[in-house]
Design goal:
Elements: H1 2-19, H2 24-38, H3 43-77, H4 80-92, H5 97-109, H6 114-132, H7 136-153, H8 158-167, H9 171-194, H10 222-242, H11 251-259, H12 262-276, H13 285-318, H14 321-329, H15 336-351, H16 354-371, H17 377-387, H18 397-405, H19 410-436
Length: 439
């Protein structure tokens, strides 16, 4: 019966989101209520489970996602993203332009949410394509594949950060492993696949888009642009090893321990960005704070989706469904990493949302992690994250964003965007399985 309930619950979620078009958060709560009642839980207990799931899932994540949104907004609005792209284009030259764009997309994608990153890099893509004479898709795909990988694999992005929190994975190690796995995924799905798309030359009416051009002399310097964009990565990856350097209980040890907390690292990054990309460039504190308010508004829908997924996960646990599924899966011969990837991929194809796919998979796979000590939770985060990017098609908002902005037909979008996302997902899985052999 628990398996049937899980299957029906996921079907109900797919139906409500994909066909009824109901708000994702409401869909999660309705499905959580339905599974709880069908499992025989008391009504009061169901309410408590939903509240516990929401609170426990958001917790620290509100800080990480909130500060991440603020940092991304400042990097975008200040022109730091444009400066990073310009520098890398100059370094790589026209001949190796695709590689420079892939690297630029990855660096920009670390602090920026995918949709925000897309809106920022779109004018850069059409400008670069026009000035270099390269076909549009061969310029766009390398940059957007990198944005997509950062969105699916790397904290502090909402989905991987939430999955890491629920699986008890170390954020710093997840980020390091994620960067390692990202490299082949971006290389193959970006510059290599992008080179095959020379026949796609969409005609884009630039007058349809409000492209805010910032004069070069008003852009932030290259050094500060790279530093601010990469500061969260530096803090999350360097503070972990430094914990073992200083005597336990010393001031330095306590300071490093504090800086190693993901939300502290994100807070420091935001404060640096406020000064370096805002105040130092002549903006008033009021103007900078207005940007931060807009960033929080943009992040709110994502946080609600994560909250809803947390409620469903807790219902799975409190109803005994997770325990039962864990018991059934513990003797399954298939690799848990492959299983996590596969479940996320199926839900992604059905629902369309990478975030929903990733977070729903956690509730199903969680007991398997608890029963198998040989599975590294950091690698499971990446397996689920790469699965959640599988085969974006007509039920995914990202599909339509790409189609409409680049003025492609549905068939052309399937041949470009959907294939790119599928490559990212499959190469991500291979990368995780390979990394599992050596760590």
């Amino acid at each position: 019966m628990p398996l049937v309930l899980t299957f029906l619950g996921i079907l109900a979620l797919v139906f409500l989101i994909a066909f009824v078009k109901i708000d994702t958060f409401i869909a999660f709560v309705l499905v959580s209520l339905g599974i709880g009642l069908a499992a025989g839980m008391d009504v009061v207990a169901i309410g408590k489970s939903i509240q516990t799931g929401i609170g426990g899932t958001l917790g620290e994540l509100v800080l990480i996602v909130g500060f991440g949104a603020m940092l991304g907004r400042l990097v975008a609005e200040s022109g730091a993203a444009m400066r990073i792209t310009n520098v890398l284009i100059k370094v790589f030259g026209v001949k190796n332009l695709r590689w420079g764009l892939a690297l630029a997309g990855f660096i920009i994608g670390i602090p920026l949410f995918y949709n925000a990153g897309f809106i920022i890099v779109f004018p850069l893509i059409i400008t670069i394509a026009a000035s270099s004479g390269l076909p549009m898709m061969t310029v766009a795909i390398p940059m957007l594949s990198a944005l997509s990988v950062a969105h699916g694999y790397l904290p502090p992005h909402p989905s991987p950060a939430a999955i890491a929190g629920q699986l008890g994975a170390n954020i710093g190690r997840t980020l390091i492993y994620g960067i390692i796995v990202s490299i082949p995924a971006i290389v193959i799905a970006g510059p290599i696949f992008g080179r095959t798309l020379t026949k796609y030359r969409p005609q884009i009416d630039r007058d349809l888009f409000k492209i805010r051009q910032i004069p070069d002399h008003e852009l932030p310097g290259a050094g500060i642009s790279f530093f601010v964009a990469l500061l969260p990565v530096l803090l999350l990856t360097l503070t972990g090893p430094l914990k073992t350097v200083f005597p336990e209980g010393s001031f330095a040890d306590k300071l490093i321990t504090l800086l190693a907390e993901p939300y502290i690292g994100m807070l420091l990054s935001v404060l640096v960005a406020v000064y370096a990309l805002g105040i130092q460039r002549g903006l008033t504190m009021k103007a900078v704070m207005k940007d931060l308010e807009e960033a929080i508004k943009a992040a709110s829908p994502v946080l609600l989706v994560i909250a809803g997924a947390g409620a469903l996960k807790q219902i799975f646990i409190d109803s005994g469904t997770s325990k039962y599924i864990g018991f059934l899966l513990q003797d399954v011969s298939i690799s848990p990493l492959l299983l996590g990837w596969g479940i996320a991929a199926v839900i992604r194809v059905c629902v369309g949302s990478a975030t929903v796919a990733g977070l729903t998979t956690v509730g199903i796979i969680l007991p398997l992690i608890e029963n198998q000590t040989n599975v590294k939770p950091e690698l499971m985060v990446l397996a689920i994250g790469s699965g959640s990017l599988m085969m974006s098609h007509l039920n995914d908002g990202g599909f339509w964003l790409f189609k409409e902005y680049f003025n492609l037909s549905i068939r052309e979008t399937l041949q470009t965007w959907t294939v790119m996302e599928t490559i990212v997902s499959i190469i991500g899985l291979f990368g995780v399985l390979a990394l599992n052999l050596v760590v």
